[in-house]
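Progress note, project year one: complex with NDP.
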Amino acid sequence: MEQTKCLIIGSGPAGFTAAIYASRANLHPIVIEGPAPGGQLLQTTEVENFPGYPQGVTGNQLIEDCRNQALRFEADIRPGYVTKVDTSNRPFVVTLDNGSSIKAETIIVATGATARYLGLPDETKYQGLGVSACATCDGFFYRNRNVAVVGGGDTACEEALYLAGLAKKVFLIVRKPFLRASKIMQQRALNHPKIEVLFNTNTEGLFGDEYLEGAHLVEHRGTPDERHFDIAIDGFFLAIGHKPCSDFFEGALLTDEAGFIKTNAPSTATNIPGIFAAGDVADPAYQQAIVAAASGCRAAIDAEHFILQNA
Ligand code: NDP
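Model obtained:
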């Protein structure tokens, strides 16, 4: 069976940064790109907050640049995805979707997270045309426009406040009669003159010719007070949580309640010696490309040290 010193799972900024560092440390890493090569950055349009690109860069270009940099140092990047990891012995046995297996002395899990969506067909229709799950990435395009944020947690309040600094008006669509966010975030959102909180409200659909123009909402759904109404918006931001992509470990790696892999900070070590986690799959707090890239660097250095200590 083929064997590698370092197997990297995932091809976002964390995976490719880990690949650059691991390659330069002569670990000859194999990178398994995963079911959505490039990760979440490919869903954004312009990235304006990644240092080194003063004019901004598209998500596609940023990922292609990271990939090319990893290739330059001869990282072995392969399509496909991991279906199973046998963590009972080291080297670990990693099974891929094509049925082949690779033995790995160390594994860097950089599989990312996917934003949760409501599941409305209109979300797909207007993706990139008004629908977004990242205010920090896309908010800038909605300067002086009306937007809505869905969710009642800290992320939703944070996104609403961020957007309120740019947009003309922000609707915060909350399905319950209260916010779940921390008190201070609640107060900030509730007191902001540009934010209108719509409690007890759900989204039924979106509308617009080419770009998003509005949302169909329902208040007090399923009660005698049920009321249907529309709001005019150019941007619809989902902030109802993220789902980390860690299922294929089938519970072997310790995670928090939401499924984010726990690491032994400041190291990227997981509960299984030799397995490291980097990027959004282990980051419930920041979820930014630059943070993911930095943790990919840390994971590669951690893997290199682990190999030296266990040689
Ligand atoms: P949360 O799980 O805390 O909140 C998700 C929100 O989305 C809830 O209000 C929930 O409603 C709502 N929601 C879920 N599904 C739907 C749906 N289908 N339709 C409508 N609304 C829905 O996720 P967050 O991403 O906000 O936060 C994750 C973690 O990160 C939390 O622990 C949070 O505290 C932390 N965080 C901290 C920050 C900070 O401290 N600055 C910033 C951002 C996050 P309901 O309440 O009805 O379930």
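The pocket of NDP is lined by residues 118, 150-156, 158, 175-176, 180, 240-241, 284 (CB under 6 Å).
The helical segments are 13-24, 59-72, 121-125, 135-138, 154-164, 183-191, 289-309.
No further modelling is planned for this target in the current period.
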